[in-house]
Design brief:
Layout (H helix, E strand, L loop, with lengths): L3 E9 L8 H18 L3 E6 L5 E8 L2 H8 L3 H10 L3 E9 L30 E10 L3 H19 L6 E4 L7 E10 L17 E9 L3
Antiparallel strand pairs: 1-3, 1-4, 2-3, 2-8, 5-7, 5-8, 6-7
């Protein structure tokens, strides 16, 4: 497996907001330290449904590298200490997806190959983040169905842009979880990602935009 992708959800503690300059410097420092440690890009996405929630997404070579190498490191513990009054970690987990295979790039400007907003990715792209909870033992059935029916459907709904995702590595005991990222223009048609034919599952869908610091 060529590494794993971390998905962490951070909740800002009032009165902290994502517009606070001092907090943004600390969040930028988290990115800097994580990228230096791993050699991979990390990103923030700000949830549409609740702007106090921020996703941190990044790549690790292995679960061991993150859990037993980075997390207990002095530099990471110092970062957590500096942020303890401004945010809390709602959850974090990992999926078996190569970072570059996820659709974490913005729409190009019309008539060009240049991303709207340039490298900071401040554009009209909205990502749906769908968490599909599948009964243990139904993983192959879900995978076969989503490849046969789900991907073409989602590509059509997303104006030709395919989604990307992976299975949760550190999963709950009785359920498998598949996480799908799908990019949309800022358009209400992004909502049907919870409809996949012929499958029994629970799904939680949220939407988010890039947070550039």
């Amino acid at each position: 497996m060529p590494g794993i992708t971390e998905i962490a959800l951070l909740r800002l503690t009032p009165p902290a907001t994502a517009d606070d300059a001092a907090l943004r410097l600390k969040l930028a420092r988290v990115i800097e330290v994580s990228e230096k440690y791993t050699g991979y890009r990390f990103y923030y996405l700000r949830q549409d449904e609740d702007p106090s929630l921020i996703y941190l997404i990044g790549h690790w070579d292995s679960l061991d590298q993150h859990m037993n190498g980075f997390i207990p490191s002095a530099e990471n513990q110092s970062l957590l200490e500096s942020l303890k009054n401004e945010l809390s970690i709602e959850f974090f987990f990992h999926i078996d997806a190569w970072h570059n295979d996820l659709p974490l790039w913005p729409w190009p400007k019309e008539g060009t190959d240049t991303p709207e907003g340039g490298d900071n990715r401040e554009d009209s792209t909205v990502w749906s983040i769908a968490r599909y909870f599948v009964k243990d033992g139904k993983r192959k059935e879900f995978t076969d169905t989503i490849k046969a029916d789900g991907w073409p459907l989602q590509s059509h709904l997303a104006e030709g842009r395919y989604g990307g995702g992976g299975w949760r590595v550190d999963k709950d005991e009785d359920k498998e979880e598949f996480v799908l990222f799908l990019p949309w223009r800022d358009d209400p048609r992004r909502s049907p990602v919870d409809k996949l034919p012929g499958l029994s599952y629970e799904v939680d869908v949220k939407h988010a935009k890039f947070l550039s610091l």
